[in-house]
Protein backbone atom coordinates (compact mmCIF):
# COMPACT_ATOMS: atom_id res chain seq x y z
CA UNK A 1 0.00 0.00 0.00
CA UNK A 2 1.25 3.49 -0.81
CA UNK A 3 0.22 6.78 0.73
CA UNK A 4 -2.18 7.42 3.56
CA UNK A 5 -5.50 5.54 3.42
CA UNK A 6 -8.45 7.94 3.55
CA UNK A 7 -12.21 7.87 4.04
CA UNK A 8 -14.40 10.81 3.07
CA UNK A 9 -17.51 11.44 5.17
CA UNK A 10 -19.71 13.53 2.90
CA UNK A 11 -23.06 15.29 3.06
CA UNK A 12 -22.92 15.89 -0.72
CA UNK A 13 -22.80 12.42 -2.26
CA UNK A 14 -23.29 13.47 -5.88
CA UNK A 15 -20.36 15.89 -5.85
CA UNK A 16 -18.25 13.33 -4.00
CA UNK A 17 -18.90 10.65 -6.63
CA UNK A 18 -17.53 13.00 -9.28
CA UNK A 19 -14.31 13.53 -7.27
CA UNK A 20 -13.84 9.74 -6.99
CA UNK A 21 -12.31 9.54 -3.50
CA UNK A 22 -10.85 6.09 -2.64
CA UNK A 23 -13.55 5.51 -0.01
CA UNK A 24 -16.58 7.63 0.82
CA UNK A 25 -19.51 7.37 3.19
CA UNK A 26 -22.73 9.37 3.17
CA UNK A 27 -24.70 9.40 6.43
CA UNK A 28 -28.15 9.80 4.82
CA UNK A 29 -29.96 13.01 5.70
CA UNK A 30 -27.08 14.64 7.57
CA UNK A 31 -26.77 18.38 6.98
CA UNK A 32 -23.77 20.56 6.16
CA UNK A 33 -21.78 21.12 9.33
CA UNK A 34 -23.13 17.92 10.90
CA UNK A 35 -21.18 15.26 9.00
CA UNK A 36 -20.76 13.19 12.19
CA UNK A 37 -24.09 14.15 13.79
CA UNK A 38 -25.61 17.11 15.58
CA UNK A 39 -23.86 18.87 18.46
CA UNK A 40 -24.16 16.84 21.64
CA UNK A 41 -24.86 13.53 19.88
CA UNK A 42 -21.64 11.96 21.16
CA UNK A 43 -22.67 8.33 20.78
CA UNK A 44 -23.91 8.90 17.23
CA UNK A 45 -20.72 10.80 16.35
CA UNK A 46 -18.61 7.88 17.62
CA UNK A 47 -20.76 5.40 15.69
CA UNK A 48 -20.38 7.32 12.40
CA UNK A 49 -16.64 7.68 12.93
CA UNK A 50 -16.26 3.95 13.72
CA UNK A 51 -18.22 3.03 10.58
CA UNK A 52 -15.96 5.28 8.50
CA UNK A 53 -12.79 3.83 10.03
CA UNK A 54 -14.02 0.28 9.39
CA UNK A 55 -14.11 1.15 5.70
CA UNK A 56 -10.30 1.25 5.83
CA UNK A 57 -10.32 -2.54 6.21
CA UNK A 58 -12.05 -2.91 2.83
CA UNK A 59 -10.50 -2.48 -0.62
CA UNK A 60 -10.74 1.02 -2.08
CA UNK A 61 -13.57 1.57 -4.57
CA UNK A 62 -13.01 5.03 -6.11
CA UNK A 63 -16.24 6.81 -6.95
CA UNK A 64 -18.47 4.59 -4.82
CA UNK A 65 -20.25 6.36 -1.97
CA UNK A 66 -21.58 4.02 0.71
CA UNK A 67 -24.87 5.29 2.13
CA UNK A 68 -25.74 4.55 5.75
CA UNK A 69 -28.89 5.22 7.74
CA UNK A 70 -28.67 6.65 11.24
CA UNK A 71 -32.25 7.10 12.53
CA UNK A 72 -30.94 8.58 15.80
CA UNK A 73 -29.79 11.69 13.86
CA UNK A 74 -33.41 12.88 13.60
CA UNK A 75 -34.21 12.04 17.21
Task: Give a brief outline of the structure.
This protein has 75 residues and is α/β, with parallel strands linked by helices.
What do these coordinates show?
The chain has 75 residues and is of the alpha/beta class. The chain has one domain. The chain has helices at 13-19, 42-54, and strands at residues 8-9, 24-27, 65-68. The longest helix has 13 residues, at 42-54. The mean pLDDT is 94.
Strand content: 5-15%
Distance between the termini: 40 Å
* Helix segment tally: 2
Shape: globular
What is the gyration radius calculated from CA atoms? Answer: 12 Å
Overall domain count: 1
What series of H and E elements makes up the topology?
EHEHE
Q: By helix and strand content, what is the structural category?
A: alpha/beta
- Average predicted confidence as pLDDT: 94
Q: Main β-sheet, in a few words? A: 3 strands, parallel
Q: Portion of residues in helices?
A: 25-40%
Number of strands: 3
Which strands sit side by side, in order, in the main sheet?
1-2-3
What low-confidence regions span 5 or more consecutive residues with pLDDT below 50?
A: none
Annotate the secondary structure layout.
Elements: E1 8-9, H1 13-19, E2 24-27, H2 42-54, E3 65-68
